[in-house]
Structures
1.
Amino acid sequence: MTQETLKPQEKAALIELLYQMGDDDFILSFRGSEWLGLAPHIEEDVAFSSISQDMMGHANLYYHLLEDLGEGEADRLAHLRSPDQFRNAIILEEVNGPGTYLKEPEYDWAFAVVRNYFYAVHKQIRLDSLRHSSYGPLAEAARKIMTEQYYHLMHWEIWFKQLMTSTDEAIQRMNAAIEKVWKDFGGVLTLGPSYAEIVKANLIDDEAVMKKRWTNKMEAVLKEVGAGYPGEPRMERGNGRNGVHTDDLKQALSTLSEVYATNPATGW
Amino acid sequence: MTVGVSFNQLSEEEKMQHFLDRINAGEKIEPDDWMPDDYRLQLIRLISMHGISEIMGALPEKEWVPKAPSLHRKLAIMAKVQDEMGHGQLLLRVAEDLMAPLGKTRHDIMEDLFSGKLKFHNVFHMDAPTWGDAGIIAWLVDGAAIISQSMMLDSSYGPYARALKRICAEEVFHAQHGESIILAMAEGTPEQRQMLQDALNRWWESLIMFFGPKSAKETGNSNADKNIMYKIRTKTNEDLRQEFFTKYIPRIWSLGLTIPDDTIRFDEESKMWIYMDADWSKFKQIVSGNGPQSQNRLDLRRRSYKNNEWVREALAAKKAI
Ligand SMILES: [Fe+2]
Ligand SMILES: [Fe+2]
């Protein structure tokens, strides 16, 4: 399908899906950028900031697809929507730890590794599926994103496996992070309330199929590093795809739009 | 060197003479070559300060990464801070090789930074309270860095010269990114222009300080002179500052901005810029860790070093297996 051949309900479903994916990358990229200068070593600062930059680029691609569909300027979509208009999963908006990125950050590297790794595994599955999307421009964007995503997944997988098989303290911290992420990771794995229309329009595979791929992969990886499988990933704080969010998102968005919002009409 | 006499059999004076002949002939010194201790120490001092300044320099701009006012600007400033970290990494590796024979490692560099023994560039101790500051930093601080680093592209120490080649190529993009921010604001609303002018006012004295004092008199420190003798650098601090003025003052004026110095002018007779010198006692205070953001930014790094101790231990344990 192209923009011209989309039926109205297909278009609405496509828009919903693009917001989910754009917002996921946008907000997790922001959390990543808060880590700059605080990573465990300088080499990691370089690698992590490169990943965050790539992810911002991916969000930008999705927002431009939305712009092409008549949703308004990409910059407005990123900077001027209210929190309830965001469709990202709640676990991706969560703060990196106590403090802020400017003052007294007590950031948790185990949480960063687990959240980014779990997300990268899902993102890979999502992109694999999107390559065959019925919407041509989306399939094309997915192929573009895939080349960078491959490296991100590898990066986080190495970290995950290394820390899960190292000192007792590392293993303990990693397990605590897995428990924390698991409580809300179900929110990443869902396509939200428009799920049926999204699948019917052949935009992406069924969420149940993709979820199964994710849980299979996780079961195998956790087994490989000698950890137990925590069962069904949950959605304890609600479904971000419905526009349900925490204060963490509100604060993130006010930082992200601080300058732009002072005058959206002018050039910056 | 005479054929048949091995280098090791030469006296210290002969080795020194051989070394000076090499650098005077424009040869590059490599890490495993013989070098006087003093040369090694000068390089360690210079390169670790440069490397750590790149890393600390990413922090004021980091403040503006999420706040950058468009997706395009967000992407550009993310790319820039990533480059700066990369420069730091590249330079610290050069410094580490030089320190290895002294039994020192990166851990010592970090400890020296935390204790205040290893200083970083004056500009990175300063406040960057608005988006205008992010623009001025990328345009003029990076512009100043290009001028001082280009001078060392032909440094006698091979690994430093090669690292600088790569760094300078990237710095050009940084300055362009900065100039683009500045132009957008200069052509924008009165509020944007004012924000820009305020940022320039804030940064001007720091930019004067960037190149260091005119002579050793002001700091009682002769490292610059020594580095010229060793062909690590080729120009004096004042040469560089004048170059900076010549390149940027006309551009600043053409944007309709005012330089916060009534006395500044080009003197046709001496072919030099006349300007109000910086307060060098203030400079000393700033680089000693008493600038407005010195302790805040050091705290960020100290804190992360402490919080990530378990990660370093975990990685070391993996290596030991
Ligand atoms: Fe740099
Ligand atoms: Fe730079």
Note: Chain A touches chain B through 54 residues (CB under 8 Å).
2.
Amino acid sequence: MTFQPVKFYQTGTFTVGNRLLPAETRSVQANMRRTNSLNSGHRACQGCGEALGARYAIDAAMHATENRLIAANATGCLEVFSTPYPETSWQIPWIHSLFGNAAAVATGIAAALKVKGRSDVRVIAQGGDGGTTDIGFACLSGMFERNDDVLYICYDNEAYMNTGVQRSSATPPAARTATTTLGNSFNQGKNLPWIAMAHGIPYVATATIAELRDLEAKVERAMHVRGARYLHIFVSCPLGWGHPADQSIRIARLAKETGLFPVFEAEHGEVTSVSKIRKKLPVTDYLKPQRRFAHLFSPEVRTDLIARIQEGADRNVRKFGLIEN
Amino acid sequence: MLKQIEGSRAVAEAVALCRPEVICAYPISPQTHIVEALGEIVSSGRLAPCEFVNVESEFAAMSVAIGASAAGARAYTATASQGLLYMAEALFNASGLGLPIVMTVANRAIGAPINIWNDHTDTMSQRDCGWIQLFAENNQEALDLHVIAFRLAEELSLPVMVCMDGFILTHAYERVDVPDQAQVDAYLPPFNPRQILDPAEPVSIGAMVGPEAFMEVRYLAHAKQSQALSLIPRWAGAFRQAFGREAGGLARSYRTEEAETIVVALGSVLGTLKDTVDELRESGGRIGVLGVSCFRPWPFAAVREALAGAQRVVVVEKGMAVGVGGIVSNNVRTAISTRPIPVYDVVAGLGGRPITKASLAAVLQRAMTDDLELTTFLDLDRALVEKVLRKEREVRRSGPIAEQVLKLKG
Ligand SMILES: Cc1ncc(C[n+]2csc(CCOP(=O)(O)OP(=O)(O)O)c2C)c(N)n1
Ligand code: SF4
Ligand SMILES: [Mg+2]
């Protein structure tokens, strides 16, 4: 009998609850009994990729740990929109301390759980790209180096959104923010997943909100590993990037399909799997729908800058082998 | 048990007896020997279970302590000087979240110019961060205050700083009475947190609070810390009963009977001051000492009462608010604001400058005849600073201040 494997993209979407799959392999989000760890009613913007990413990730982590989870949150959009006093969207034990210390707070929680013999309870730290790649970098690196039993999740929306869209070290070249009004310069960048890998920690992965099942699988895998783990999730931000709220998932998918955001996994510093690009698209497909890149297309088309961005994407494709042979 | 040990070791022994469950360590002089000793105690297995976390900064040290405390563990760390400032943001956070962390601060100057020696600039700079601040007079008290600090912190759900003079106490070998485990266990029950991160009962800690409730939250911080003013004497009393010696309390008077002049101070300088006052008493001076052990919360009533009979007050302090003068003296003034008596401020011992009996006696004698400026700098080389100031007036590019001072000093 010939066997035809079902590819997810045959459904036309990558969304929740693939009906072609057996029940036990369906996504956590497809399950009515998911924990809704980040409950509805919070104050994120419409189409917020960070809200979506956090819900996916934390529900998956809850599933993986049988609901024994504690989270430490850095200051940022996720913290502010989820806990306006006296309300909270969090259905899990959750603490917000400061902007730059989420990783260290999580280390403290993990240490407390260890002395108390509660190694069944797992710890997550989470923050935005600013709280991760900039101000929280030292604490994060310390947590990695000690190999503390913490999963750190970075929700990367490529700028300081909560304070009104300022540039962070994760802001891509040419992107316009409130502090790079002519477009961000072409710097060296700061590739946090790569830096995490340089620490040799047991597990590093990247994901986007466009591929729910992939994201969930990575969270699941991360929760079955002990020690320091890092998950970098690409989350679109309609407000900061200037795209319609209903385009968040499409934009995230384009980031991957252009090669601008490589989706991969690594163990102990070695890349172990790569999500291939199905059909490589030019970076302009990704850039055009976002107002933060509008100056690349009008009043004149900046072919020079676009070419440099394309070069970056092509380099990723080569470096990670993103295209199926 | 009586032991002849270094102050840092004495503190480490006391902390270990308090059974902390998470200890965060980061080196900075003159605190380093404390965490080194604790590390040794933990790795020997004598203190267990305990997680000893070597962190990458003081900011992380306090943050790890915050996480540990919020998850229900008894948490401890130690620091000094630049390290205390480096954790400043987390200090306010720990108190704001109501986490009963105990921390030793081995008091040291703040740079620039960098200076590793003792004064109180570090903890004075953090006096309003919401932590209780207790000052030790000698090594025995430094040891004892830690036992009291954990009791107090956990009772109020507020963090406590035990301040001890760097080098002068931390590095001095003195005889101390180290209590036994049973005594400490009887005084300090296991940590029973008011809030805890627990999957069985999820709570959100550290939510955002807007104008509609922030005043109330801050008022509660004030009201809560003020409760320490009644709890501290109670725990000091209980300590005396259990251990048979004095430690802590709000403030302690020495030879203040019929004293016209009372000298107020904090920390180890009290020893020198008491000796000086003994000599002045011998020559007929009506002078006494008030040692303040609890600087935050500020014990208004205890200070007012202790100074009730004085005609003048001299505050000898190892810190200064630049552009203002004394810090402790201003607190003293608020305590006795209804009585118009002079409060002289003697800024002394900055950056480890020795505070000698001779210099103290000279300045106190002048104070006793009201022949003293309101703010004096003990043993200041006035000619030298005048020279520097003159040069700065004359030469625009006069160079680094510290180098000028050292050059002129010869
Ligand atoms: C020490 C400190 N510096 C600055 C801020 C101001 N601040 C709060 S949130 C934020 C931006 C957060 O950006 P990011 O971490 O990328 O998260 P996002 O809001 O984009 O999700 C900034 C700058 C702060 N709260 N604390
Ligand atoms: S600004 Fe961006 S990250 Fe923040 S809530 Fe809105 S969409 Fe989400
Ligand atoms: Mg961001």
Note: Chain B touches chain A through 43 residues (CB under 8 Å).
3.
Amino acid sequence: MKLYFRLVSALIKGVEPNDKEKKRNKIFYVVMSIIAGFGIMLPMAFFVGIIMYTATGALMQNGTQENGIEMFLHLIAVFSFIFGLNVFFSVFYFSGDIENLLPLPLKPYQITASKFTAAMISESVMEYLVIIAALAGYIIGGNMPLYSWLTAIIGTLTMPILPLIYCGILCMAVMYFTRFIRNKDTVNKITGVFTFLVIAGIVYLIAQSGFDSGKLIDALSNPENRLLETMNIIFPTIPLLTGSLGNGGILNFLMYIAVNIVAIAVFMIIAQFIYFPSVAGVGQSMSHKGKSADMTEKMHQISCSASYLKKELKILLRTPAYFTNCVMINFLVPVFVYLAYLINGQTNFLDSFIYGIRSGNEETVLIFMIGISAVSVLVTALNCIASSGITREGKHFSFIKYIPVSYMTQINVKAAVSIIISGAGMLTGVIIACLLLNTGIKFTIFCCLLSLLSVSFATYLGIYMDSINPKLIWDDELNALRGNYNIFFNMAIAIVTEAIICAGAYLLFKFTPTGSILIIIMLFVILMILNAVSYLLCLRGGVKNINSIE
Amino acid sequence: MSDVIRSDEGSETMIKIENITKTYNKTVKALDNISFSVKGGEIVGFIGPNGSGKTTTMKILTGIIKPDMGKVTINGFNIREDPIEAKRSIGYIADNPDIFLRLKGLEFLELIGDIYKVPTDVRRSRTKDLAEKFGLTDALGSPMISYSHGMRQKIMVIAALIHKPPVWILDEPMIGLDPKSAFELKQLMREHTKEGNAVFFSTHVLEVAEKLCDRVIIIKNGHILYDGTLEELENQNKNKSLENIFLELTEK
Ligand SMILES: Nc1ncnc2c1ncn2[C@@H]1O[C@H](COP(=O)(O)OP(=O)(O)O)[C@@H](O)[C@H]1O
Ligand SMILES: [Mg+2]
């Protein structure tokens, strides 16, 4: 047991910055954590809590209140399963420490169990927050007894276990029975496509329900909900957990604990038998041999910036972890837009929106424009091309410093990469939307400009945020992005800034006699100022930060 | 020759480092007031046990890290005041060759060529030449992730040489090289200095330095223990092998 705790703490520390690094940026972290806490985490928790509270209240009327929370927890479980796949393939088979751990006299179940725990703790922080918020909404909404809070806390911490055990077992089984996945690139590609499909599927399902909460409540109040019954069989811990929250839940709670223990035991037994055989012969990456009659004849000089840009793009496109997390995500935007249009006619909300745009309704047009700006900023922050621009250099960060290219030039090239890729996704989305809405050329160009301005603001902000304290020590590209506080903080700042602007613009329209044209012009001006500010931040602060990173 | 500006002052002293002190995290004193210089036409070996401060010195020379105090001049340019010109004069091999592994060998060399503005024809002939010398021609079209450690090291060597910089700063360049490539590299170092350029390389292996260097600088715990030719060192310590002298020096 002592060994287990030591391994877990060693594995968690392995991915965290060392104490010295932490101390240097203590104030930065505190400030950023507060912004992130108040800007993203609390509102999100509050939002989840309120939804659960309302749903529980509505479902109480025919005594099916646990259906709502169960469905929500199942959704969380499915997500943690999907995102866990990549993580477990990586930590069980492809992380750099495997080579160091395997020769030690450790049992397979010891290695897998400690790696499992470390991964669960570091991957589930956000998940814990969402689960506890949902359970809180449920407890308050359902007038549960006081001790349910204790059960809820234990439940929150243990709920991710079962979906992640499925993940772990699936990973080991795949590696044991198949011989074709011998490198992490293949795994990243497969799980990337899989994630994309599942997310698209969920979006499609939600879109089909027509953004209509009434229908959803109806479906959930049906005591014989097929989907829910199936899910309860797949994740039996969830109905047991919700059951243990109400009166007389002790039996359910004991069973909940028992099922988890059984699952852990099964996992360890399977690991004991198949982990070592499956980990043998795993390589870091494919080696493709290219023939090269005379490759050198192809060489030719281009400008330094263009060459640097090519290098950045190639690395983003060729590294599966970056491709799925940073590039593909942008092209969800046009997919969303098109899906939303496909299901129009089924809902009043979209219908009236489309009509509003086509007829030039001031409010609708304003909302459309604000929406474009907000989504552009969100997507740019979310794809983290900018906010991981320096982080991605990792252990060879020194390259930035010893080449004879000024830091600002390099920042600008990195910014260009983010603007090109985020912009490509956004503009495709915007143009499709404008075409579908028949808005006319001038309006379309206007929207594209607005989107680009928002993208470039978020880009320079992202690079500046990353320069403050880039996470340069990682051995797996996925780790450069996962658990990277800079990316998260940047998202918080970008979202908060954009939320203030958007809310400001809308409130100005609603509660003052200011016309929509004037507000849109103001929006443009503010975005340009923000661009200038974030550019200056990079020019002054970013360059200085890079200078002082060692 | 690529378009490196040679300043008048630098024609003699190519690397000059004056009173450099570097402390990590306010506690680890990695370098304590060191000074030395390397002239054009000289191969200077930087010898010291692990952790003695070799990499730190080289990172300060290339502008990667900032010293607490002191001054660095490369080819006549101050690394702090004229960083771009100073850096343009340097060909640097870092101590870790794992860089941009998703790029093909040739793409990496193209990037380096573009950064140092090596014209197309020069680039082609040099790459062809160097790749043949190091037996890397067939691998140029493959991503570097599929290279062995030695192959990666060779690509780094080619990248540092492709722009023929007046100053070579090589951090343990022999590590991972097979005997033939190590021989080729030594040969290149000699040729390079014949043209009036400077070579400054670190090693913790004495033999490498023995035959190659015009001069050695021995460092230990951030202090320079010896700066001069190996002959002088042997003369000062009669009847002792170089290895023993080195061990005695660095074990004090
Ligand atoms: N980034 C760093 N942070 C803290 N200490 C460091 C760092 N880099 C090197 N050191 C310390 O500085 C000293 C010199 O290291 P280094 O220059 O790498 O030696 P060498 O290259 O000669 O082996 C060592 O004591 C090492 O532990
Ligand atoms: Mg070293």
Note: Chain B touches chain A through 51 residues (CB under 8 Å).
